[in-house]
Design goal:
Layout (H helix, E strand, L loop, with lengths): L4 E3 L1 H14 L2 E5 L10 E4 L10 E6 L7 E5 L1 H7 L2 E9 L13 E9 L2 H7 L2
Parallel strand pairs: 1-6, 2-5
Antiparallel strand pairs: 2-3, 4-5, 6-7
Length: 123
């Protein structure tokens, strides 16, 4: 199955830790201010998505509920040809994202979708 978004094992470990502290979580990537294109992790339901937001998919992480990943519509127009992988790196990100106090930040790694992946996603 072709997916638009995945995550690294390190990001999955951090999500399990965050869920143990905050309950179910979600991601939203706006491309706006603060960390720009960094994915922001929020308690599920704390960030209100709008009609122009695009649900990229749900991350399946063993031991926790699936984690929905959203992106603003205008940002999606720039990124719709890419596969995104959520990773985690040392360093402090935005104070709005749940991982900020942990001394790490989520980061997007991207690559272009293959022709086959694009075709599968556009069916």
């Amino acid at each position: 199955m072709t997916r638009r978004v995945d995550l690294t094992p390190a990001a999955a470990d951090l999500l399990r830790q965050l869920v143990s502290l905050h309950g179910p979580v979600m991601f939203h990537q706006s491309g706006g201010c603060c960390d720009g294109s960094a994915p922001m992790c929020y308690p599920a339901g704390e960030f209100r998505t709008g009609v122009s937001d695009v649900r990229l998919g749900d991350l399946e992480v063993e031991g926790i509920e699936d984690v929905p990943v959203w992106m603003s519509g205008p940002q999606f127009e720039y990124w719709k040809h890419t596969h995104l992988t959520i990773d985690v790196v040392p360093g402090r990100g935005s104070g709005f994202s749940l991982e900020a106090p942990e001394g790490v930040r989520f980061l997007i790694r991207s690559r272009l979708l293959t022709d086959e992946e694009s075709a599968a996603l556009n069916r």
